[in-house]
């Protein structure tokens, strides 16, 4: 069933999408640059730091599983508002804690909200922008990337000027502001009864995990997340091992992150216009091959180029998020597929930094980690091949023999 929304409703929904997306990583990247000073102040060491490092993908995976049920009970708009409230409250409390236990607990609350937001934004696009999936996806994924980068750049200067508590707590404000455009959407949805019309439940025997669409898209996003988290963790060390300074390694990580903004804005629009967007995955394969070969053969000669190519190879992340909507017929289907795909993605992401680090320590170099990542890229390509085929999740929910 297609429901038309007024331009005011769509404008509010777009504002909600962009603002909410901006807040989906701030709990992570606002804390990481300050771990040393926060640890000194709250008296914790590497164990708590390691817990905080793995808390994000773990919380994202857990709440990716739980969110479709929350959404089915509350509706998309209320679930999005809940996500932003949890994120804002968790970030605010985290800035006031007196010890490491409180820091971990408050971080978990904030990350719970962000994990819910990860899942609920694709179906929100499906509901309000089913005719503009590519452009709407590009806008919110770009906002997500900006919200990932900005806290990392300003965390230390803010802490030096105002203290680490202000630097951490300031990110509660944009999370709470994201609730504002959702409030009139909640009132509109309740007044015109659109919730029930738009959020039709799937059949009782529908199981997302039985769908080839879900598994192929989960493999695509899972391998993408694993590779990305591994590179975020180990690019600086890789460069230092090659003879670069720590500052140079950090700068190359910045190049890797910044170049990804290009793909977040371009890839969703291209994918939405194509019946079979696998050629985007094929380009990613080539970028990975050149980037890793360059880092192994001549890591310092063209370091910025290798980092930029690998950053562009992260294009399968926005492609995965866009395919969640392109391979579903309804907001309900999008919510279920989003939950499955993102839980699989973030569970696999937890393994990336650990496995790459273990292989590097065991082998004493980077050839073994690259061999492991090459295997992940093959799985990524296989998942992309099947995920890009033009078929819909809900088609597998029809009774046997139905068309």
TrEMBL record:
InterPro entries, alphabetized: MFS (IPR011701), MFS_Cyanate_Porter (IPR052524), MFS_dom (IPR020846), MFS_trans_sf (IPR036259)
Record bears the keyword Membrane: yes
TM region positions: 43-67, 79-97, 103-125, 137-156, 168-186, 213-232, 252-271, 278-299, 305-326, 338-360, 366-388
PROSITE patterns, A to Z: MFS
Domain Major facilitator superfamily (MFS) profile: 11-392
Pfam families in the cross-refs: MFS_1
Keywords: Membrane, Transmembrane, Transmembrane helix
Keyword ATP-binding: no
Name of the protein this chain belongs to: MFS transporter
Originating organism: Cognatilysobacter xinjiangensis
Gene: cynX
